[in-house]
From TrEMBL:
Phylogenetic classification of the source organism: Bacteria, Pseudomonadati, Bacteroidota, Bacteroidia, Bacteroidales
InterPro entries: FA58C, Fn3_assoc_repeat, Galactose-bd-like_sf, GH, Glyco_hydro_29, Glyco_hydro_29_N
GO cellular component terms given for this protein: lysosome
SUPFAM superfamilies named in the record: (Trans)glycosidases (SSF51445), Galactose-binding domain-like (SSF49785)
Keyword Nucleotide-binding carried by entry: no
Protein name: alpha-L-fucosidase
Length: 716
């Protein structure tokens, strides 16, 4: 049977014949080259960068795009350092604002003050990509709110389909490329294709054209002439893959989540060339045998695992918009690239036309980890099949399922915790359905990793093992697989940062610090993936913890006091985590002046959950706590809510009472720079006092806000 990118399933095909056909579905040369990119970037920039919105309305004045300077070299240097091979620029997002000097609209950079209206971000980026050796792609949104909202807009204007020539000539702006197309088009499709022509002929080679399927608003039953778009792209950008249809697909989420099994041979209900109905690409199971049996066509369509390094696609600020840690980005890289997909990471430039320092720091650290971990194959000098050690996808070894497998013997033992496998998908499709890797330990084979498919690439991660022999076994497959590469590596695991929390009833828990990132969580345990084997040691007497301190194994009860903890891995100590614990809050009763905002009642300021918070109207609202019994007080801690910058207590008065009626001032507090640094703050009294009731009165709110809020109040 010949291999093909798409194979039709006949009604008479048996399950065995369908699986045989699946084993002959292969990527096109462009798809295979796109897979080899492995790690690519998104750049979202536009009016939303300045309005701090995720989706614009299309009604924005172009001058709101107030860019003063631009440094695309800095972007490319940082991406290159990360190991990124291609960058895709959002040359037009849903708002219709364009980032290049288009002939066909003035709703874009030509109507801003940037370089006196002569600026062209796509041109700058293209030049920087050439300089740094990166490929270039473009995101051109089919949805266009400017063309919808503008009374003279072309989107959904009910214009007739007539024969039209692409490109439409514009006096004074001739094209160097003299290619002409004729299509039956309406006004908006003509507009869109004229823009495609500009982008694909005037900015160097384009390697991916990214079509978003989102439609914030539609009008007039507008249809897209995708067949014409595709013909134009294939003609003008012959090396480009198209995202959104037959070449590259969405992974199904925007969080960096990955499937345990990511098949790129997927079933289609219609021919991908002419399909009007497409499979659900968000389903958990896309390509198992059970799914293939339902197909009318089998088609090779690879996944891109896309997410953003920041909370959101566009830059908002460097204070409240959190950035993914290097641990998180590296973990997504290993799961995505090592899970038969491409990792597409969005890095939004700031309003100075640069990547922010934190983003650059993360990119450099991720690139260093990739280089340190994967640049050397620890099996390179082993005794084994040379076809698997030459880093060439075109050489391979046929490894039938169920046999003893392929063995690699080393001259000296090595310590490893990663194994990378690849199939020759370009010639023999993806065939492995289940596989395992064994290590020779204590005179016998020990299974160290097991997974389902391999496809273009599988990265297996496991705890450190020292061995001088590795064995790869195929347990189940679609025909005989062609294994192309096998490599072993060592990732230098780092002891993770820790966090100390306490439940409302006083149970202390110490664990690896979770990613402080509140946008589309992927749910992966990053510490378990990257820091396997670490141990936690702690103290409660103020001393510095080390390997001789008690080991934390399960939550324990603790009233007020100081706790310090450290993670230790392979003898290396992580950063010491410190927490001053106040009185247990289980029996506290909390009341407040000022009407509490919806779902933000006073008790939430003392529930041991910083994600919830009390919020009251008025700038002088007070919160009162009944401790249930008289206690000695030395001070309090205030944790501001971080959902936004509202209600942060800049100044206030701490009062105490024994009966809840007669109050004495215990001290006045002031917390500075809360807006830029919304972290837990402490205030200590000059002299300790005994009291059952505590009242915190706010006298000034940061940034002049008109409300008062607190995520947590702790009393010491």
């Amino acid at each position: 049977m010949e291999c093909s990118n798409t194979i039709k399933i006949e009604e008479t095909d048996t399950p065995e014949q369908i699986i045989e056909k699946a084993a002959h579905v292969v990527p096109t040369p462009n798809q295979l080259n796109a897979l080899k990119n492995e790690f690519i970037a998104f750049i979202h920039m536009g009016p939303n960068t300045f309005t701090r919105m995720e989706w614009g309305s299309g009604k924005e004045d172009p001058k709101i795009f107030d860019l003063k300077e631009l440094d695309t070299d800095q972007w490319c240097e940082a991406m290159k350092a990360a190991g990124i091979k291609m960058v895709i620029l959002t040359v037009k997002h849903h708002d219709g604002f364009v980032l290049w000097q288009s002939r066909y609209t003035d709703h874009g950079i030509m109507s801003t003050g940037f370089r006196d209206g002569k600026g062209d971000i796509l041109k700058d980026l293209s030049a920087s990509c050439q300089k740094f050796g990166l490929k270039l792609g473009v995101y051109l949104s089919p949805a266009d709110l400017f063309q919808i909202e503008n009374p003279k807009g072309l989107y959904g204007n009910l214009s007739k389909y007539t024969k039209r020539t692409i490109p439409r000539e514009v006096p004074g702006r001739p094209f160097a490329n003299k290619t002409k197309f004729e299509f039956e088009l309406d006004d908006y499709n003509e507009y869109f294709m004229n823009q495609l022509f500009e982008i694909l002929t005037e900015y160097g080679p384009i390697y991916e054209v990214w079509f978003d399927g989102a439609h914030p608003k539609t009008k007039g039953g507008q249809k897209y002439n995708y067949a014409a778009w595709k013909q134009l792209i294939h003609t003008l950008a012959p090396e480009a893959v198209i995202f959104g249809r037959e070449d590259v697909r969405w992974c199904g989420n925007e969080s960096g989540g990955t499937r345990e099994t990511e098949w790129n041979v997927v079933p289609y209900p219609q021919s991908p060339d002419t399909a009007t109905v497409f499979p659900d690409m968000t389903a958990q199971d896309l390509g198992s045998r059970e799914q293939l049996y339902k197909a009318k066509y089998l088609h090779y369509q690879q996944a891109e695992t896309n997410t953003s390094i920041r909370e959101g696609w566009f830059y908002r600020d460097d204070t409240h918009q959190k950035v993914r840690s290097a641990d998180d980005v590296f973990d997504i890289y290993e799961r995505a690239v090592g899970g038969n997909s491409t990792f597409l990471l969005n890095i939004p430039p700031n309003r100075d036309g640069r990547f922010s320092d934190k983003d650059v720091e993360v990119l450099h650290e991720v690139g260093k980890r990739i280089q340190d971990t994967y640049s050397v194959n620890l099996l390179a000098d082993s005794k084994g099949a040379k076809e698997l050690l030459d880093n060439d996808l075109n050489t391979y070894v046929a490894v039938p399922a169920g046999e003893k497998g392929t063995v690699f013997s080393l001259k000296e033992p090595v310590t490893i915790n990663r194994v990378v496998l690849q199939e020759n998908v370009g010639e023999y499709s993806e065939r492995v359905e289940e596989h395992a890797v064994d290590a020779w330990v204590d005179g016998q084979w020990k299974e160290i990793a097991k997974a389902t498919n391999i496809g273009y690439k599988r990265i297996l991660r496991f705890p450190d093992v020292t061995t001088d022999k590795i064995r790869v076994r195929v347990l189940q497959s679609r025909l005989t697989p062609a294994i192309a590469t096998v490599s072993a590596h060592y990732y230098a695991s780092r002891p993770p940062r820790l966090e100390i929390t306490r439940s409302i009833d006083g149970k202390v828990n110490i664990q690896a610090r979770k990613q402080d990132f509140n946008w589309k969580a992927h749910g992966e345990d990053v510490a378990a993936n990257l820091n396997a084997g670490f141990k936690i040691h702690y103290t409660t007497d103020g001393s510095e913890p080390d390997v001789n301190s008690p080991e934390f194994k399960e939550p324990f009860s603790m009233d007020r006091g100081e706790i310090k903890a450290v993670s230790i891995l392979h003898g290396d100590k992580g950063e010491v985590c410190h927490e001053q614990l106040g009185y247990i809050k289980q029996n506290w009763k909390v009341t407040a002046t000022g009407s509490a905002a919806d779902k933000h009642e006073a008790q939430l300021a003392a529930d041991e959950n910083p994600a919830t918070y009390w919020k009251a109207n008025g700038t002088n609202a007070a919160i009162t706590i009944d401790l249930g019994k008289e206690c000695e007080l030395a001070g309090f801690a205030y944790t501001p809510q971080t959902e936004n910058s509202d209600g942060m207590m800049a100044k206030g008065i701490l009062k105490t009472s024994s009966d809840g009626k007669s109050w004495k001032e215990a001290g006045r507090f002031e917390f500075g720079n809360l807006i830029n640094d919304p972290t837990k703050r402490y205030y200590y009294l000059k002299d300790k006092v005994n009291a059952r009731y505590v009242r915190i009165e706010t006298t000034e709110v940061a940034a002049g806000n008109k409300s008062v809020a607190a995520a947590e109040v702790d009393l010491f």
